[in-house]
Amino acid sequence: MAALPVTAFSPDKKHSDRERWICIYPAYINSKKTIAGGRRVPKDKAVENPTYLEIKDVLTAAGGIKFGVENKLYPRETSKEVLYRGRIRVQLKDDNGKPLNPDFPTRESVMLHLCNMIPKLKTRQGKQGGEQGSHSTQSGAATKKKGKGRR
């Protein structure tokens, strides 16, 4: 995640400058976050614990979107783990102010697209199947245990 240096914002900058690109943190679309904690989409559309890698995969598959990944941590994030790191910068408009991709004219449209597509990723499909199988084995093992204190 090599990031180019970003300078201070100035209204004179063009839309193609990285400073004018929008920022998307995984917390913006995380269903486990509250609005006060940083979620920016409705809870029913949000995704459970998205990572910057999943966001990157979806944006790459969408095509026609220029973006960059930076090794930054969301300021309201309490955990400092690598899983929660990552900031995606996305260029929405060209220098004339027109959207680069007509499907994504606003930051909300990009975030809602991410919410729709992340659950369809192959990595997410595998996690759902694996979790269901592990729950059944754990519950079966728990019933066979004897209580503490028997002598």
Automatic annotation (TrEMBL):
PANTHER family (UniProt xref): SIGNAL RECOGNITION PARTICLE 19 KD PROTEIN, SIGNAL RECOGNITION PARTICLE 19 KDA PROTEIN
Pfam families assigned to the protein according to its UniProt record, in alphabetical order: SRP19
Record GO cellular component, one term: signal recognition particle, endoplasmic reticulum targeting
GO terms, molecular function: 7S RNA binding
Source organism of the structure: Cimex lectularius
Subcellular location: Cytoplasm; Nucleus, Nucleolus
Summary of the function given for this chain in its UniProt record: Component of the signal recognition particle (SRP) complex, a ribonucleoprotein complex that mediates the cotranslational targeting of secretory and membrane proteins to the endoplasmic reticulum (ER). Binds directly to 7SL RNA. Mediates binding of SRP54 to the SRP complex.
UniProt name for this protein: Signal recognition particle 19 kDa protein
SUPFAM superfamilies in the record: SRP19
Keywords carried by this UniProt record: Cytoplasm, Nucleus, Ribonucleoprotein, RNA-binding, Signal recognition particle
Superkingdom field: Eukaryota
Family the entry assigns: Belongs to the SRP19 family.
Region (Disordered): 121-151
A Gene Ontology biological process term: SRP-dependent cotranslational protein targeting to membrane, signal sequence recognition
